[in-house]
Design goal:
seven-stranded mixed β-sheet, Rossmann fold, globular, alpha/beta, two-stranded antiparallel sheet
């Protein structure tokens, strides 16, 4: 049984649903707020042939908040490039994510017509999805996100012939929560292991979405998932 909370969606606007985008919120957020935030930034994040899903992370104790209950995709010891990953927590969310993707498969959407991405922790989760768990997805995007410097994602890419989907990463140059250098490190390390990606720096942006970044992601999705 899935531990995910409420699932919010934006339906396609055309006659047929041929692709899916799954957007994961940051720590402490939820799917409803993420949907509202994204739509505000893009004047509706909608596509004629793509369904957009906004799942909500399970409520669980979160170590960086002194163990307080929070809607987070996984736990971590600290918000730091050097902190070790909590692999048992990542393993638990993997089951929920795979179930969510399987439901789209059952609706006739193959993995290569699915993109995953997100903001902050949601983007970090998307790295694990696209470069560890489901490497035949159409793409991965991340907004203001990073992986730990000794991430298991890098270790698994080292021994893999299939390097996973294309990556689109954006990051603000004034981010005080996730330093721009952490985003650069993540992108540079992923691409050094064979991932094909783009990294875009957004000027005067802190730890937040903005219109320019979300519209860049929307244009990239249109290119990766054309109507078939």
């Amino acid at each position: 049984m899935s531990r995910l909370g409420a699932l919010y969606l934006t339906k396609h606007t055309g006659p047929k649903h041929t692709a899916t985008v799954i957007v994961f919120h940051g720590s402490g957020g939820n799917g409803e707020n993420m949907k509202e935030w994204v739509n505000l930034m893009t004047k509706k994040f909608v596509f004629p042939h793509i369904k957009v899903l906004y799942p909500t992370a399970p409520l669980q104790p979160y170590t960086p908040s002194n163990g307080m209950m929070s809607n987070v995709w996984f736990d971590r010891t600290d918000i730091s490039l050097s902190a070790p990953e909590m692999l048992d927590s990542l393993d638990r969310i993997k089951l929920d994510v795979l179930q969510l993707i399987k439901k789209e498969n059952e609706l006739g959407i193959p993995n290569n017509r699915i993109i995953v991405g997100g903001f902050s922790m949601g983007g970090a989760l998307s790295f694990h999805i696209g470069y560890r768990w489901v490497k035949d997805l159409a793409g991965v995007f991340a907004f203001s996100s990073f992986l730990n410097e000794k991430s298991i994602v890098y270790e698994e890419l080292k021994g893999s012939q299939f390097k996973g989907p294309p990556l689109f990463q954006v990051h603000g140059d004034s981010d005080m929560m996730v330093d721009l250098s952490w985003g650069h490190y993540t992108h540079d390390t992923l691409t050094s292991h064979g991932v094909q990606g783009e990294f875009h720096v957004l000027q005067k942006l802190g730890h937040s979405l903005n219109k320019r970044g979300m519209n860049m992601i929307k244009d990239w999705i249109d290119k990766i998932l054309p109507d078939d």
